[in-house]
Write a structure and sequence with these properties.
With 292 residues, the chain is α/β, with parallel strands linked by helices. The chain has two domains: 81 residues, no CATH class; 157 residues, Rossmann fold, CATH 3.40.50. The protein is 40% helix and 18% strand. The protein has a nine-stranded mixed beta sheet. Strand 6 and strand 7 form a beta hairpin.
Length: 292
């Protein structure tokens, strides 16, 4: 290592340490605010990943509700004609109620409507009179015919399954897409976290403040190592991707490398699909599309 490199590294580490210390001092000056936030999240302990996972599972079950839930007597759509008859053009995974008016929402967690029974796999439901939903597990083959839909969308889902499950699911997504169809994925960007940690560019501190402002639990610890580790160890995450790793799994699933592209927030081949991107975590997210 040259003397210039040593000085640069020392400067970077000093700046990062100063930023961390400033954040910690600011936290110490706001005990009342911290106490109020903690009171809103009883039992939420950032130092207990397993306990936090249980809390988040409970939270998921609490939000998996709707006003009305009606089983569809015709059953699940199977082929392209079935989807079109229902006015459906694509599928959004990990969505109890997709924002796309022509989309089928799916999730592993059961959805409950009012005081009635929860959803069951293999059944199609009308949600609140204007959306469609079915409960399914992406670790299993999709119950749809080849070339049955025009688009697939999944926001912050792929990181929640193991690499083999991800490849199998992407292979199934490609199978059910019609020629010319598009798959759009969003997920936390590994490169963004590692660059933020290595360079001290302020991303980690800004992301922490963003989540706190949005009310995502009590304030996280300000330590850079924690802020990197939490994206790997928390929220049921199994595998974190950068662009190259996304290209890798998409290629394993059968997509052509030249048809996999890096996109921007709400920018893509189909504006109606790209518009499904939510603004919640744009700072940490990578957006990728792949054509069938």
């Amino acid at each position: 290592m040259t003397e210039k490199t040593r000085r640069t590294e020392q400067t970077r580490r000093t700046a990062q340490t100063e930023r961390t210390e400033r954040t910690e001092r600011a936290e110490r000056t706001k005990p009342a605010e911290r106490a109020a936030r903690s009171a809103r999240f009883p039992g939420w302990d950032w130092d207990d990943p397993d306990g936090l996972a249980t809390r988040l599972d409970e939270f998921s079950a609490q939000v998996a509700t709707c006003d009305t839930l009606e089983p569809h007597p015709g059953g699940l759509p199977h082929d392209h004609a079935d989807f079109r008859e229902l006015g459906l053009t694509g599928i959004e995974f990990a969505a109890f109620r997709t924002a796309h008016p022509d989309g089928l929402g799916t999730d592993l967690t059961a959805l409950r409507g009012g005081a009635g029974p929860a959803t069951e796999p293999g059944t199609l439901y009308r949600v609140d009179g204007d959306r469609w939903f079915t409960q399914l597990d992406i670790a299993e083959p999709l119950p749809f015919a080849d070339a049955s839909i025009d688009w697939v969308y999944a926001e912050h889902l792929i990181e929640h399954v193991t690499l083999p499950v991800a490849v199998g699911w992407l292979r199934e997504a490609r199978r059910v897409l019609r020629p010319g169809g598009v798959l759009r994925l969003t997920t936390p960007d590994l490169a963004r976290y590692l660059v933020g940690y290595a360079t001290g560019d302020g991303f980690l501190a800004k992301h922490r403040r963003r989540l706190t402002t949005l009310g995502f639990g009590p304030p996280m610890p300000a330590r850079p190592a924690f802020l990197v580790n939490q994206v790997f160890r928390y929220y049921g995450h199994q595998w974190i991707y950068d662009l190259d790793e996304l290209r890798h799994v998409l290629t394993l699933a059968g997509f052509t490398p030249g048809q996999v592209r890096h996109c921007a927030y709400r920018q893509g081949t189909r504006s109606d699909v790209a518009d499904l991107d939510t603004a919640f975590r744009t700072d940490e997210t990578i957006y990728v599309e792949a054509d069938r």
